[in-house]
Amino acid sequence: MAQAITINDEETRLIQGAYRDLLRSIKAKLSPEDKVNIRASYELAVRAHAEQRRKSGEPYILHPIAVAKICAEEIGLGATAIISALLHDVVEDTDITLEDIRRQFGTRIAKIVDGLTKLDSAYNAESPQAENFRKVLSTLVDDVRVVLIKMADRLHNMRTLGAMPRHKQLKIAAETSYVYAPLAHRLGLYKIRTEYLDLCMKITDPDEYRDIAQKLAETKRSRDEYVQEFIRPLRERLDSIEVPYNITGRAKSIHSIWNKIKKKNVPFEQIYDLFAVRIIVDVPVEDERLVCWQIYSIVTDVHTPIPERLKDWITTPKSNGYESLHTTVIGPKGRYVEVQIRSQRMDEIAERGFAAHWKYKGVSKNPDIYERWLDSVREILDDPNSDAVEFLGDFRSNNLFNEEVFVYTPNGDMKILPKGATALDFAFSIHTDIGYHCQAVRVNNKIVPMGYQLRNGDQVEVVTNNRQRPSEDWLKLVITGKARSRIRSAMKEERRRRGELGRETLERKLKAMKVDFELRSEERRVGKECRSRWSPYH
Ligand code: MN
Prior knowledge:
The chain has 538 residues and is of the alpha+beta class. The strands form three sheets. Strands 1, 2, 3, 4, 5 and 6 form a six-stranded mixed sheet that branches. The model is unreliable at 518-538 (pLDDT under 50). The chain is 57% helix and 10% strand. It has three domains: 9-204, Hypothetical protein af1432, CATH 1.10.3210; 214-359, Beta Polymerase, domain 2; 369-488, Ubiquitin-like (UB roll), CATH 3.10.20.30. Strand 5 and strand 6 form a beta hairpin. The chain contains 24 helices and eleven strands. The longest helix has 32 residues, at 481-512. The structure holds manganese (II) ion. Manganese (II) ion is lined by residues 63, 88-89, 153.
């Protein structure tokens, strides 16, 4: 693929400019040692990729520089990730070995580069998506940075997909929307997820994409005017509470507008919530909840709220860390407008997810959400009974992407389960044995079927009986990977046990008939007659 054309002076200037841009985009604090290492990794990558060009014809090195910049600027990662991003294609595409990298940059960076190389080869080998996905997740639990850099790599490739042949574009778009977009969602990288989906749509449905983009541009002016009209009466009140704030109206993504058009089956002109108004306040952490609710009360004083559209992710953040207060109000001309209220910190977590989460660790209300999620990923990966396809199904259908429900044990301990989880899932989440021997479940003091879908705030109590055993139909009553795999292995165990039981029964019968066991070969010879007399299966 590499066309050996030496880089000319103009391109050299282009590369150096891109590198300077990268350095300017780094928000993390760098030690003098970090700076030296970033420079060194850049120089190594420049030398290693010197002879390579991308499909578009531009020098290959511009790609790793762009990926490093996305890591620094859009995901907010630090020196380790930036160095790894600059080196991410070096081992795969050039003569540089992993050992060279380890010697120069240390074990941590070598491990990350190795993880990225393996992910790439999984993709190139055209292995089935399910197996590939499992690999993505395995590296995720090793070091989340591998997946974050991979996200940046994928984003840059998606942005520059134009030079690829159509069938490759479609394949990459399919994988992006199937694997990377949900994962970005789960990691709270909302901005990247939105861009993935828009870029995918641009490839899979180019006409619709162009159509909506054009209409959005045409209606921008009247939309801006409307937003101003909506905001004006709010500003006066907001100014009076003397809290620094920022209020904007932003158009929703093309992909989400398209979804609405399809879902509601109406033309673009009839979609009114094309934008959301966002109010971001700059206050210390200890004040943010109070101030957000204060703003909420101002907004709903000025514009009539639709009560059932209040979403309070401040009291209970989403499982991916998202915190924000959403309300829908009736604006001028009777149009519904969604208003999002949040602090600067919440906004950063909302846009950059995981990476921002670390920055505020200890401050956030729910500091362990990602650890807990990674634990559940690990649990599924470690399950020897799950094969790749089943695993992908489990992963996508429930558990790991979706929202959660919060329920309580009789002692008042909170348990968090994926949305859609049942009473039986709850039993297994407490302990495998409680799941196995679950005979009945009481929710809010009433007996419910085992397949009852849990709701926020439910108080759940499991009644066990030691003689109870899981059965095949239980698989239909659970949605969590844990419960499912435990029931599956119990069924396997049960089948094995029954086999043994059958043999024991046979032995007992034979003994009762005073037939010596050594005669088993005899039995076979005697044939039909014996079998009909001794068989335990009639
Ligand atoms: Mn790459």
